[in-house]
User: Fold this.
Amino acid sequence: MEVPDQALPAATFEDLAMPLFDQLYNFARWLTHDTTEAEDLVQETYTKALRGFSSFQPGTNFRAWMYRILRNSFLSSRTGLKVMVALDGEADESLLPPESSTPESILMEQAGRETVQQALADLPVPFREILLLCEVEEMSYQEISEALAIPMGTVMSRLFRARKALRDLLRKKRDGGRHGV
Amino acid sequence: MACDQGRSKLDAYLDGELDPAEANVLGKHLQGCAACSADALGRVQMKRSVQMAGKRYAASAELRNRIAKSVAAKPRRESRGLWWTLGVAVVSVLILSVAMNFYLGRDSARRRRVYSELADLHVAALASATPVDVISTDRHTVKPWFQGKIPFSFNLPELQGTEFTLLGGRVTYLAQTPGAHLIYQVRKHEVSVFIFQDRGEETASLPSGAVHAVSFNMDSWTQNGLRYFVVGDAGANDIQALSRLLRDAG
Assistant:
C-alpha cells in the first residue's frame, strides 16, 4: 500500500493538514461565495487547528476534524450567521416526500457543468455542504456526521432532501430555459 | 423486494452505505427491474455531475505559501530527559498511525472510486438495450472484433465443459483509457470482464485479489501488461473460477 514518503519520518500537523489544503479551500469558497472570505476562512481554520492539534484525538478522523473546524468558523462568521437556516423535522425519515417520477438522467443529460454549478450555488448552505462532502469529498456517512456534528439519521435525511432540492432546481432551470426560448 | 422499498434505499446503496446483505438483495432486484435500474443509473449520473461541478475553485499559490509557512513544523525543543523522549516517541507513534490511517483512507477512496466506476459500467451495460456490440458465444469471433478498436490484444479461454457462456463484448473506457468489456453468463448471473492496458494511474496502483465492493464480487490481477477486472453479482466462487479460466488463457 503506498504511503507518501514525507508522511513516514514524523507526522507533524503540517504533514497531515497541508494535503487537505486544496479541498478545504474549494469547500470554503463554495460556502462563502467570495474569494477573500474563503481565504480568511481557510487561514482561520489552519490557525485554530494548529492551536488545537494537541486536543485532537489520535485514531479519530483528522479530515472530518478539519472540516468541522472550518465549518464552525464559517458558522460564527457574519456570512455564516446569515445563511444557515433551520431544517425542521429533518431527522424524521418517515416524513420524507415520495421520490420524484422524473429520472435524474433526463435532467442531467440536459444540464451542463455550469448549470449544475449554478444550481449547487443556489442551494441553501446545509444542502450544498452535505452534497459537497458526500459527492466531491466522497466522505462516508460517518465522516459527514463527524464533520457536520449531526446524527447519522440526519445525514441520510438531509442528503435525501439536498438531492431532491438539487433536482427540483435543475428541473426549474430546464423548464425556465424552455419558456425563455 | 418491492420497488418502493428498493428505491428508498437506492441512495444509500449507491453511496456504498448499505450493509452487504441488504445491498445483495437490492442488487438482485436492480438486475431484474428495468425501472429501478434506470433510476439507479440516473442517480449515479447525478452523483458524477455534482462531483465534477463541485471541483470548481483553486486557491492562490500565495495563500498556500502563507499557510504552509504558518504551519511549518517548528524546531523541536531541547531534550528534557528520558520521560520527555519517551513521551515524544509515544506521541509520534500515535500521530504516525493517524497519518497512516489518513493516507490509507485516501488510497482506499481511490480504490473505491475505480471499483464503483467498474460497477457502474457493468450495471450500465446490463441495463442497456444493447449490452454487447458483438454478440457471439464464440471467442474466435469476439476476440478479432476488437482488432483496431483497442490498442492491445488478449486471449480468451475455452469454455466447453464449464458453466460459463460468453455472451459478447463491447469497447469501454476507464479513466479515458479504452479497453475490452466482455460479458459472460454463469447460470442466471451476468459477469463483466474488463481488460485494460496496465499503465493508467487509476488502475496501476490497485492491489490484486478478490474484493467485495458496492455489493458486487470482484477480482483483479495484472498479467502480460494487461489489467483484468471481473465484476458481477455471481458468487465469489464463480468469479474466482472465471478469473482462473482467464488467467490460464492469458
Summary: Chain B touches chain A through 56 residues (CB under 8 Å). Chain B has a mean pLDDT of 82. The domain at 83-250 of chain B is CATH 3.30.200.100 (Phosphorylase Kinase; domain 1). Chain B has two domains: 1-52, 83-250.
